[in-house]
Write a structure and sequence with these properties.
With 517 residues, the protein is of the alpha+beta class. The chain has helices at 3-14, 17-28, 39-46, 64-75, 115-119, 150-155, 164-169, 172-184, 190-199, 208-220, 225-233, 236-240, 260-277, 286-294, 299-309, 314-317, 331-345, 350-362, 365-374, 380-390, 394-409, 415-434, 448-455, 461-475, 482-492; strands at 34-37, 52-57, 78-83, 88-93, 103-109, 130-133, 144-145, 158-159, 187-188, 319-320, 326-327. A seven-stranded mixed sheet has the order 3-4-5-2-1-6-7. A two-stranded parallel sheet has the order 8-9. The protein has a two-stranded antiparallel ribbon with strand order 10-11. Helix 10 crosses helix 15.
């Protein structure tokens, strides 16, 4: 065992300003000692920053909740009772000096006769270590309690369960194993993977928001693909999302080189790699895309969730023609409904649910456009209307569509077809980022009030239709200022329904000039 590294980690912990202040608070609150446990020690050994602190109150001390209350009074922290039955409490504290973000300090009673027995109730060996913290700043640096070999597993970069029963006690730990392995770049030992497979059914009883928190941390990892694959190998992923099972072995059309499930995972891999390293076909738009990404909350987890579910509607939409060829008409519509249900199970917010659903619903749009383009039927107006329908979600749709396209043909895809699709995406990004095709930048040349006054028409659907047509004309470069927009609107008006139009008193009728132009 690397004792030097343990000593360095101990010094790092004891020198932390939070621990320094806490030790002083223990003396002021008349608390003889606590045990610092779990992830704090693990992260200190790995040289990672410490965000939150977990403490065990020894059995010979007061109840954990009472101890937490006394420390809260000294630190001026907010006290939260987490579990009355288990006497678990949390302090929410923002240290005054040095300036720090909000910290969470969790307190729990000791389970068992001593700290060694308590640690046997923890999830994984790398979290089953403890160090005694006392108010005496002059005390000798304490040693670490490590009854399960957590330090050896840290050196081996290994996630290992303390006992299979710990996984059954809280099935969320099944997902947490993969989240820890992903975030720490560790591997999971074989016995733990086997235990996860055996216990996988328990995950369905875990609150959706708890599952989402762990799962989204995996999605947020820049290299989560491998762990998602391993989750699937244990059966945990399809236990969480049984709607994905139908993709396995699903034969697809001639353009595809993989079955439904492997295509889905390849789409996920390509998207994840592109988000981390950039998409070569979109190099021109890297800066614009980064700005769009920076302005979104949880964008990586949400995009990857959409990639995972982008074809989930295919099993239910599958039909086979007389030649035996499979078709999946409107599978994206079914998929949008299915992913909405899955996001609701995870207790995702309504906004996040709608975003992921929209990305799935419209991910086939660019593919349909390419087919129209190849037959000479695609117009600029069609592209503009597509982007306007998507609004600010357009880049997400285009990124998922690109990953889907690249995963479809694989290495055998033709250069001509690829170039055609890349050119289409380039034109869509040009419209979105540079010409504000989604009408997000407030570049409108006229308002409804302008049209009513200039054309002598009444408020109603005609005004809305005119505004949409004028906006499309602006994006296409057909009009550049207010006067040109009014002239075009006047020329379009006779084609509109006569409802909601009225003769302008003392002014020009439809098609006649009233502004001197």
């Amino acid at each position: 065992m690397d004792d030097q590294r343990v000593r360095q980690a101990t010094c790092r912990i004891l020198d932390d300003p939070v621990l320094t202040r806490l030790k002083a608070a223990l003396a002021e609150a008349s608390v003889p000692s606590l045990y610092l446990v779990g992830g704090t020690l693990r992260d200190a050994w790995l040289g990672l920053p410490t965000k939150d602190f977990d403490f065990v109150v020894p059995g010979d001390a007061d109840h954990a909740g009472d101890v937490a209350k006394r420390i809260a009074a000294v630190l001026d922290a907010r006290y939260v009772l987490l579990d009355e039955d288990w006497d678990m409490a949390r302090l929410v504290w923002t240290p005054p000096e040095p300036p720090q973000a909000r910290l969470l300090l969790d307190f729990a009673p000791m389970r068992g006769r001593d700290i060694g027995e308590d640690l046997l109730h923890r999830d994984f060996t790398c979290n089953a270590m403890a160090m005694k913290i006392g108010p005496d700043s002059g005390m000798e640096a304490p040693g670490w309690e490590d009854p399960t070999g957590g330090l050896s597993d840290l050196q081996a970069a290994l996630i290992r369960m303390v006992h299979p029963a710990r996984l059954r006690e809280d099935p969320l730990r099944l997902v947490r194993a993969f989240r820890l392995a992903c975030s720490l770049d560790f591997r999971i030992d074989r016995a733990t993977l086997d235990a996860i497979h055996t216990a996988r059914g328990g995950i369905v009883g875990v609150a959706g928001e708890r599952v989402k928190d762990e799962l989204f941390k995996i999605f947020a990892c820049p290299h989560g693909y491998a762990w998602l694959r391993q989750m699937d190998e244990t059966g945990l992923l399809t236990t969480l999302f049984p709607e994905l099972q139908g993709l396995k072995g699903l034969k697809q059309g001639s353009f595809h080189h993989l079955d439904g499930w492997n295509h889905t995972m390849e789409t996920y891999r390509i998207l994840e790699e592109g988000l981390a390293k950039g998409f070569d076909p979109l190099a021109k738009w890297t800066e614009n895309l980064q700005k769009w990404i920076d302005g979104q909350k949880d964008i990586f987890p949400l995009l990857k969730a959409a990639a995972l579910f982008h074809d989930v509607g295919k099993p239910g939409a599958c039909s086979v023609d007389a030649a035996g060829k499979p078709h999946f008409y409107r599978h994206e519509v079914k998929g949008a409904e299915i992913v909405s249900q899955a996001m609701r199970r995870l207790r995702a917010g309504r906004h996040d649910e709608e975003r992921v659903s929209k990305w799935v619903r419209y991910h086939m749009g660019p593919i349909h456009m390419m087919r129209a383009m190849e037959s000479g039927r695609l117009t600029e107006t069609a592209k503009i209307r597509f982007l306007r329908r998507l609004g600010n979600e357009a880049p997400g749709v285009l990124l998922i569509s690109l990953a889907d396209f690249l995963a479809t043909g694989g290495p055998a895809a033709t250069g001509t077809r690829n170039a055609s699709f890349y050119g289409l995406l380039d034109s869509l990004f040009e419209l979105f980022f540079r010409k504000d095709a989604a009408s997000l930048g407030g570049r409108h040349l006229v308002t409804g009030t302008d049209l009513i006054a200039a054309l002598g028409i009444s408020p109603g659907p005609v005004v809305g239709r005119l505004l949409r047509l004028l906006e499309e004309a602006r994006i296409e470069g057909k009009v550049a200022n207010r006067a040109e927009a009014i002239r075009l609107a006047r020329s379009l008006l006779p084609r509109m329904s006569p409802e909601n139009t009225r003769k302008h008193k003392g002014g020009a009728g439809p098609g006649e000039s009233s502004d001197g132009s």
